[in-house]
Amino acid sequence: MAEAVVSRTVVVSNQQGLHARPADLFVKLAGQFESKIEVIKDNERVDGKSILEILTLAARQGTQLTIEATGPDADNALEALAELVESGFESGVSEDNSTVE
Amino acid sequence: MQKLQGIAVSPGVAVGEAMVMDTEGFRIPRRFVARDAVEHELERLEAAMAAAGAEIERNRAAVSRELGEQYAAVFSAHLQMLRDPTLRTEMEGMIRERHYSPEYAVSRALRRYAKVFQSIESSYLAERANDIFDIEKRLLRNLLGRRREELSHLVSQVIVLAHNLTPSETANLNRKYVRGFVTEVGGPGGHTAIVAEGLEIPAVVGTGPFLTDVSGGDVVIIDGDQGLVILQPDEETLAHYQYEAEQNRTRAAQLETLRDLPAETVDGTRIELLANIEFPSEVLHCVERGADGIGLYRTEFLYLGADAEPDEDVHYEAYARVVSEIGDRPVVIRTCDLGADKVTYDVDGARNPTLGLRSIRLSLQNLPLFRTQLRAVLRASAEGDVRLMFPLVSTVMELRQAKMVLTDVMEDLDDEGVSFNRDLPVGMMVEVPAAVMMIDHFVDEVDFLSIGTNDLTQYTLAADRSNKEVAGLYNSYDPSVLRLMRIAIAAADLKGVPINACGQMAGSSLCTMLLLGMGLRRLSVTPSSVPEVKKVCRTVDLAACRQVAERVMALENARDIKSYLREEVKKILPEMVV
To answer: What residues of chain A have any CB closer than 8 angstroms to a CB in chain B?
Structure first.
């Protein structure tokens, strides 16, 4: 069975960029899918299920990221993850403005 | 390979495995595990990760309950980091394929991420490095459990790498296992540095931050002569230093043949070569190297080693041991010279500590403490050639006060029928420029003088020797320091008062010709320097030394003086110049 590879480019919209808490949410969500998830910034490509790798991208507000999903539920995964990033990591979170780190 | 430049405080070369001390004093004990233990070690890692995860989860729940969910978010991120699949694959790979111990693998893998975060230009991510260290500590705590070992319980040879070591921590280093140490902070002449010299292990201080770049078990080279620290050395560098260490051993063996020969110049002038010590156990090093006595017994460690203030018997036992082991040779006991840099971990605690309440000032304001020490010195004086010395004397009044207390204590001992040497020679350190300017008065009131070149340098140049920012100013070769020394020597000679030098300068073979040429006939040096200084003494004649001193006095800066001295020593003892 040929695996579908789908990708979409998104822009990090929240003010603090992809810091620990958003990265945590991203990885948690990515972990719910069977597909392999990768995040690409410029020419860096990291595992979308690894918070440490994602943090090393140091993606600030306005950074373009390409999310690539490979596997049986790739379409659904891509949809959910892209929405999470584009919503400024608001989806499913009650409060986000706090600077608690 | 990574090279760090620090400040050389104790000479020699050491090559060995790193033991990294963080603020919690963790050490990573082993680097490799046996092939057949791999599965077991993986299970240990698994268990430690589960336990660490449970701890974080508990923290998260507690914070969430008390402060609210958003405050607990950071723990959620920690948990995610701990369970990161890439991290786990990496650590398991290290254990399975490279046979690293789980402790080493944890440290290695996490510190790599910490370093990446620190290198990214974002203060936000630099702070994330602290999250990583937090996770590392948590895992190590769980892995090491009760086996967590401390500096004092070493069982294999290591090179200690630490942010800072207090003088008492340094003093407690076991020479058998600690081959050298490096600290991120600290300066030359500080007490940690002096202890390192006393222990005769290579040491470099003030390198700046580097602990995050190294893991326990890494091979590290300390070049205590150049103040260099080399992390992950390449083969060529490693071979070079191993050769160097071998050469040093050979040279030491050659110098040993001088042990029973006197420090006498070619023209037949006998130089009294004494040694500086801080612990009674060092007397043995002095005797082994043929020192003429103890020119400076620093008593501070009686105060630093213990939790409580030492009582009279603790003092007495230490002094009596030194006196009995040195035999009929003299022992100069210096009263407490404690200052802020020697007591506290954090030098910033007091403003201008070196200009504050320390040393003889502290003794004169704490008479019970002072009297306790004086009683013990007097009691020991009944058993050998004991002499008493007051440090940091700034004014004639201070000296008189100290002597009055001494007379008072003598009367007490008389009343109690305790025996002591009534003619105990009393001297003082010359280390404050004010004392030099008034030296013609001091010489009438003391039996001997000793120039403390370290403090004299710092007070003359107004440069705190433990402050890296101004460490460049702190230089004992500075002509201003030499001129003050010359004044003191001339005044002492005029009245026939014996005078010596006892700072680090006195022990540098580079300075021996200069100091003899300036008129000194007594030097008190760190025990390890005795053979080398003796070698120089036995090679030179005084006329040549006087010429060297004259030439030096005409030079206008420390660098010229040092390079000139280097040339001169090279002429007479080429093998000695490194």
So the answer is: 16-17, 19-21, 23-24, 27-28, 47, 49-53, 55-56, 58, 60, 94-95, 98, 100-101
